[in-house]
Amino acid sequence: MSRVIAIANQKGGVGKTTTAINLSACLAEKGKKVLTIDIDPQGNASSGLGISKDDMESTVYELMIGEVTLEECMKKGVVENLYVLPSNVNLAGAEIELIGVEDKEYILKKQIEEVRDYFDFIIIDCPPSLNILTINAMTTANSVIVPIQCEYYALEGLTQLIHTINLVQSRLNADLEIEGVVFTMYDARTNLSLQVVENVKENLKQNIYKSIIPRSVRLAEAPSHGLPITLYDKKSTGAEAYRMLADEVIEREDNM
Predict the structure, then answer these.
(1) Helix 158-171 with 132-140: angle, nearest 10 deg
(2) Residue span of the structural domain in which 93 resides
(3) Which helix (H) or strand (E) holds 217?
(4) Cα-based distances in Å from 232 to 49, 182, 191
(5) Which domain CATH number covers 189?
């Protein structure tokens, strides 16, 4: 069965969607079959993987309220071996639509059960909030990757996220674990980035990836072209950093 990894941090602007897009692309580039689930109403992971908003008649929203099948919702991504369950702003209404629905925390899990044997990795891009969408991602996932921006308030909100993961473990998904923390937007020219990395390593008992994602103009530009960094600028430092992260994720999977 595939390994399902949620990319989560309720703090916005930490490189969560960038990590979901480019980790998915790098895993696919290495020959793994990957499904990326965009469960964020902003839909940025969808557009960043080449899914046009004009092609989004069937999205995760319609899937979760039972209007379409998973096959009707799934789209081919811009990278070989990569498929996407896209999202758009309609998903913002899911919380209200699902009031009173039995087992609403497990809707996504039930929907993807039928395809888990087909993929090696399923990557879920979560919204920057702790709502029913994030809970669905965590009940579906085996583990969570937490992107942390190399800035002064890096640890802000992380305690709450870990608390939420612990609650999901105890009540909804006993097998959920923290896959690891990945540092993003690292600027080697500043002492602050180095201090943040050292501070997190000292205070966090979780697994911390060796791969550190640099602050990069090319990484920031790529989504506006509907491309992951591996296609937009395959030799950039950002592309190499995400390839290294993909290697670490694969290595951990192989060692389990």
Answers:
(1) 60
(2) 3-250
(3) helix 217-221
(4) 11, 22, 30
(5) 3.40.50.300
**β-sheet with 3-7: strand ranges across:** 75-76, 82-85, 34-38, 121-125, 3-7, 143-149, 177-184
**pLDDT 10s digit of each residue in the chain, 256 long?**
799 999 999 888 889 999 999 999 999 999 999 999 999 999 999 999 999 877 688 999 999 999 999 999 999 999 999 999 999 999 988 888 888 888 999 999 999 998 999 999 999 999 988 889 999 999 999 999 999 888 877 777 677 788 889 999 999 999 999 999 998 988 877 888 888 888 778 777 778 899 989 999 999 999 999 999 999 999 999 999 999 999 999 998 887 7
- Does the residue 256 lie in any domain? no
Two structure tokens written together for 5? 């990894």
Residue type, 15: G
Q: How many domains does the chain have?
A: 1
Question: Is the separation of the CB atoms in 127 and 42 below 8 Å?
Answer: yes
In a domain, 255, yes or no: no
